[in-house]
Amino acid sequence: MASSLLSFLLLLMCCLLVSARDQTVGARGQLMCGNQPLNNTEVKLWELDTWPDPDDLLMTVYTDSPGRFSVWGTENEITTITPVVKIYHRCNNKGLFSIPNFCKRKVTYEIPSSYIANGRSVQRWYEMGTMNMEAKQRNEDTECL
Questions:
Q1: Which range is the signal sequence, renumbered to this chain (predicted)?
Q2: Of the candidates 99, 129, 111, 104, the residue with the CA atom closest to the CA atom of residue 40
Q3: Euclidean distance between CA atoms 65 and 82, whole angstroms
Q4: What is the CATH number of the domain that holds 86?
Q5: Confidence band for 32, pLDDT divided at 50, 70 and 90
Q6: Between 70 and 100, the higher pLDDT residue
Q7: pTM to 2 decimals?
Q8: Before 52, cis peptide (omega within 30)?
Q9: Cα–Cα distance measured from residue 91 to residue 32, given in angstroms and rounded to the nearest whole number
Q10: Separation in Å, CA 137 to CA 27, 63, 68, 130
Q11: Is the pLDDT score of 18 beyond 90?
Q12: CA atoms of 126 and 42, how far apart (whole Å)
């Protein structure tokens, strides 16, 4: 009985692995702090998962001198991936305990599923546009050290 159950589970896992597919997504934009470009700002592309599968970091970049960024990544999953862009910045950051630059503001943006492509290349970029990061954003947290 135990060997039959083990065989069934192995067969099920093999079927699931075969049904997994490469899915790719990309996002780009420009970050500003008021009228100044937000250069050298960390931008990460994550693929969110449910327990017990941990979230996957697909790419980390830093904005260039005009504040521009492009992130993209591919993940092999059975179900449709859940990509998000997380931006870690210090624009208009009051700091924790009035200590500036001790913490970063972290803003999370969901990427709509219509921008996910099957395969290993970006088919349609999620254009985030030019974003002013001064004001508090929805889905904003603080991340310290």
A1: none
A2: 104
A3: 29
A4: 2.60.40.3330
A5: very high
A6: 70
A7: 0.84
A8: yes
A9: 8
A10: 18, 19, 19, 14
A11: no
A12: 18
